[in-house]
Protein 1
Amino acid sequence: MMRSFISIFLLFLFFSCASGPVDVPQEVTADKLIQLGQEASDKNKYDQALQYYQAVIDRFPTQIDSVCGAEYEIAFIYYKQKKYDIARQKLNALLARYDEPDEELLPGEYKILAHIALEKIVADKE
């Protein structure tokens, strides 16, 4: 009896911590989505954070500052999860934006942060 209670409790705990799809109202701004992503990430709710950041990319593709920020945050979440190959791929894709002719229109901080994160990946893997 006690064993079944513990099993049920563990199942409840597992499913209550699992992240499902996030319902993001259409009227939410890119800045608000980034804030929600940061709040979710701060609580280690990475699946939710990834959904908020992806919503920024999908809904606001012309807001390049927000898109670069969201792309960096997605890559950094994968870094925090020690999914280094995915993080490296995402960081390199972000850095590729800075190799295009309109680089001066992009926010410089994400280029710097991406290089720092790539260095951390190398250091962590050693």
Protein 2
Amino acid sequence: MQMRKLFFLFLLALTIGCSGQETEPRTKKRFMGFRGLNDTIDDQKKGVFVLPLLYYTPDTRWAAGAAGVYYFKIKGKNDDEKETRVSNVQFLSDYTQNKQLDVWGQWNIFTRNENYLFKGELRFRNFPDRFYGIGNTSIKKNEERYEYNLFSFKTLALKKVYKSVFVGVDYHFEQEYDFKYTDGGALQTGTITGYDGGIQSAIGLVGIYDSRDNVINTFKGSLFEVSSYFYLPQLGSTFNFTFLNLTHQKFWQVKKKHIIAIQTKARYGFGQVPFLDMSQAGNDDMLRGYPKNRFRDVNFLGTQIEYRFPLFWRLGGVTFAGAGDVFAKHKDLSLNTVKYSIGAGLRFVVNPAERLNIRLDYGYGREGGYFYFIVAEAF
């Protein structure tokens, strides 16, 4: 019954009257279905896309709301300068079956000639959630409930120092407050770092190599990002800790609209890391098949591969596999506990100009499988 309901709602989403406002005329090319879609987004320079939002993840169950994207390109001053890749400003608001409220805004903006890149996020969450303990061997039956409020602000300014290479500075502010716990649980004992929330305030140093042809749905190119964040009492942070993050993505278009994509992530923490800021194994973007809250520890290392291909009209398919785990020390990593993920999914193109997809994925891992019904690619 759950499978039928999910498939029915997926089909329903395909017929939703999404509104797309073009602010520049199209060329003479016409989109006649998935196989006829243009590979680039040159036809549409800017526009607004609004989508009634319906999705499902194991952390939220069903959720409904609305999402909007304003996207645009900036032309060069003369014919020698190319116009930028697509910039976008996104907004999302939703409420889930688990009584979770999330209001979120994000921006990714290139200036003329891509001399600068500005990224940022503003978010509020009221989030009932589950805690199973810390470590990659935590036991599912030890589940306890808790909830909290979160306010988060991030702003990142990057300067282009070479073609596709950016360096810059990031600032991150986050406040977690109004915690409520399961009576008698591990969090209520007060022995878990960050059990009562606090303020996290950090300066980050960021370097990015980004040659992707489209940051929303990449056909070809690479992303390599390294960043380090310093949460310091001198900046108002409740806890003193540091994170080093590494992300690598590579995309090959082996033939028209047949894409092989690989993603690798590493995250290392040092110092007094609160439990909410610890790394997690599982989500709708990495290690699909595990709830995001199921396993957490200071560090994470994982990789995944995905094959994307057209089917017919605006429908496409995906297969994926990955492996990774959280850990306190490298000696905690073991083939007996490593989290693997395999799965497949469907894609429906809701905005050809921006290559924006709705996706339905099924990921299977050590503890069973989960569906993911959500907007945009996993990476």
